Amino acid sequence: MNSLFTKRLGVLISFFSFISSVSFSQLENLDILRSAPSDGAKFVQAYVTPWANAFGAGLNGGWYNTAKPHKFGGFDITTGVNVGFVPSSAETFDLSSIGLSSNVKYDAKIAPTVAGPDEDGPNVTYSSNGVELAKFNTPPGTDWKYIPVPTLQVGIGLPLGTEVKARFIPKINIEDGNISLWGVGIMHSIMQYFPGNKLLPFDVSLFAGYTSLNANVPISLDPDPSVSQAYSTYNPSTAFADQNMNVKVGSLNISAIASFNLPVITFYGGLGYSKTRTGIELSGYYPTPVLVTSATAAPKAQYNDSGVKKGEDFPNMDIENFSGLRANVGFRVKMACVTIHADYTRAQYNIVSTGLGISFR
Asked: CA nearest 161: which of 187, 179, 195?
C-alpha cells in the first residue's frame, strides 16, 4: 500500500510539475514591466488572474468524501487532485478597463490572459513626453484552462463527533521556482444530536477548512538590446538574474455536507460558502527604459542605473476571487480499507476532484 501511495503521489506531482513548467515559461518575457511599475503591476494582475483564481478554487476542493466523521482514533490518508476550470469569460481582458496610465498606448483593447488563446496580444507602446521608450506585444496565452492542485491529506477522529483534517505538500522545486501547500480543516457531526441517528443511513455535518499555497515563480526581463545602455553600477549579465514572482493563494471553504451510506458506495454532497484571495509580490531588480535629454542631442530612450527598479517598487497585486455559494456532489467507493472518490463542484470556477485513500473507521 505504501508503494501504491508513493506512485500515486508521484504521478500527481509530475502532472502538477508539467503544468507549472508551462506557467513558469510563460512568464519569461514580461515586456509590459518595461513600463512604469504601476502599469506593469496592473497588467500582470489582469494577465494571471484566471490561473490564480483556478488555483484558489482547486484549493477548496477534495476536503471530504463523506459526512460521517471518524470515530475517536480512526483515520484516513488520502492523495488526490482537484482541477479548477477557467471559464471562457476569463480568456481575455480589456486593456482599457485596468487603469493603465496615459503613457501606455495600444492598437487594440482585448488581450489574452494566461489562459487565453496562444497568440500575441495587441501592440503596446510606452512613452514619456512624446518619446517612445518601449514597444512590444502583450504576451500570448497558453490555451490551458485546467489547473490541477494535488493534495496529500490526513483525517483523524476526535471525541464528540469531530474530525480534524490536515493537508500538506512539501516544497517542490520546479524550473528554478518552487511550490508548497498546507491546509487545516474540521468536521463536526450534527446528526449525533438527533435521537435514533445510528439507525439512519445518512449523515449530516458542518465543515470548515482553509488551504494556503505558496509559490516562487521565476520571471525574466532583460534590457532591450535595440536600445542603448549606460549602466555604471549594474552588470546587465548578472544583475537581473534573480527576478521572481512570489505568490500566495489562500482559500476558505465553509459548508454543510450530507452523505447517504450504502455498504460499498457512499453518495455525498455539500452546500456552502467559499472565498479565495491571491497576493503577488515581485522581487529582484528590473531594467526599465528612461528618457534622457541633452543640449546637443534629441531626447531618447536609454537603459541606465536610474531605470533599474526593485521588486518593492512595483505595487503588490491583490486578486480576490468570487466569494459566494458553492455546491458539490460526488461518490465514494470503499473496498475493505481502500477508498476511491470523485466529485464535481459548481461555482464561478468549477472543480473536479478525485482521490485514492486508505480509511480505518
From this structure: 187
DSSP for 300-348 reads: EEEEEGGGEEEGGGSPPEEEE---EEEEEEEEEEEETTEEEEEEEEESS
Q: Are 103 and 91 in contact (CB under 8 A)?
A: no
184: three-class secondary structure by DSSP: strand
The whole-model pTM stands at: 0.85
What is the distance between the alpha carbons of residues 205 and 199, in angstroms, rounded to a whole number?
16
Return all residues near 298 (Cβ < 8 A) that are at least 6 apart.
none
Residue entry with cell 484558489: 56
Provide, for the chain, the percentages of residues in helix, strand and coil under a 3-state DSSP scheme, each rounded to the nearest 5. Answer: 20, 50, 30
Q: Identify each DSSP E strand in 159-243 by its residue range.
A: 162-174, 177-189, 202-218, 229-230
- pLDDT by residue, tens only, the chain of 361 residues: 334 434 444 444 444 444 444 444 456 667 888 888 999 999 989 998 998 888 889 999 999 999 999 999 999 999 999 999 999 999 999 999 999 999 999 999 999 998 999 898 999 999 999 899 999 999 888 888 988 888 889 999 999 999 999 998 888 777 677 888 899 999 999 999 988 877 788 999 999 999 998 888 888 889 999 999 999 999 988 999 889 888 898 999 999 999 999 989 999 999 999 999 999 999 999 999 999 988 788 899 999 999 999 999 999 898 876 678 899 999 999 999 999 999 999 988 999 999 999 998 7
Where is 20: in which H helix or E strand? helix 2-26
> Which domains are assigned to the chain?
2-220+243-277+327-360 (2.40.128)
Q: Rounded to whole angstroms, how far apart are CA atoms 274 and 347? A: 9
Query: How many angstroms separate the CA atoms of 123 and 24, rounded?
Result: 23
| Nearest CA-CA partner of 72 in 183, 202, 192 | 192
